[in-house]
Amino acid sequence: MVLSNLETLFSASSTINHANPSGIGNCLFDVAEVSVGQHFYWQLGDYQVHGQVLLTSWVVFAIIATLSTLGNSKLKVETPEGLQNLTEYITEFVRDLAKTQIGEEEYLTWVPFLGTIFLFIFVSNWSGALFPWRLIELPNGELAAPTNDINTTVALALLTSIAYFYAGLRKKGIGYFKRYVEPAAFLLPINILEDFTKPLSLSFRLFGNILADELVVGVLIALVPLVVPIPLMLLGLFTSAIQALVFATLAGAYIGESLEGH
């Protein structure tokens, strides 16, 4: 079963709508419909969504909400214990990350955003490394970490892009766009291209690393089921945490860049 699923994982399929080939909207939908591997689809009106991504995302949300509720339901100011220690450590970690990347004046506004991004990616990545998702059979496709789907990582990258555009426009207004012609006007195409490459690099870096890790572990489990995959699974936990940190750090750096003076 694992080998057959791995074989289908390399196949790419896209549905192209030729009804209006010149329409920009249709082009965007064509790009959004590109998928890797087999998926369990849900039909919502005229649209199809990857049902397995929604299912695993809800599990991730439930884990985060449960730990947050348990850790903060009975706060102890003097001697925090148990999950409260964990939640406070994560909050301080994200706060320090935001302060480093964004600066002392603006960082508090963006702590909730960076914290949400970091926690979702971290728990999603670890769920793919620890949970035996593939043991749960679906009519088509298989369950995996939400970040194992390119649509999830692209959505997270686009949210980051919207965030740093919003940060710059809120602080500088229309003057934010002066950055495209600084320090020289001939850099305009390069500066515009940079804004397109940021979400691409964010999304494909995260997707590629998580997909590669699950593929390697899946192949080794199929070939050598005992002992050998364990060190790689532990390494996968480490790299999964690093990917969450890298994504949150770059998101903070982009927001900080849009807020700083030129």
From TrEMBL:
Top-level taxon of origin: Eukaryota
Coiled coil: none
Pfam families per the UniProt record, alphabetical: ATP-synt_A
Membrane topology: Multi-pass membrane protein
Biological process, per Gene Ontology: proton motive force-driven ATP synthesis
Protein location: Membrane; Plastid
Keyword Membrane: yes
Swiss-Prot/TrEMBL keywords: ATP synthesis, CF(0), Hydrogen ion transport, Ion transport, Membrane, Plastid, Transmembrane, Transmembrane helix, Transport
Gene Ontology molecular function, alphabetical: proton transmembrane transporter activity
UniProt xrefs under InterPro entries: ATP_syn_F0_a_bact/chloroplast (IPR045082), ATP_synth_F0_asu (IPR000568), ATP_synth_F0_asu_AS (IPR023011), F0_ATP_A_sf (IPR035908)
GO cellular component: plastid; proton-transporting ATP synthase complex
Transmembrane segments: 49-70, 107-130, 150-169, 206-228, 234-256
PANTHER family: ATP SYNTHASE SUBUNIT A, CHLOROPLASTIC (PTHR42823)
Family: Belongs to the ATPase A chain family.
Protein name according to UniProt: ATP synthase subunit a, chloroplastic
Species in which this protein is naturally found: Coccomyxa subellipsoidea (strain C-169)
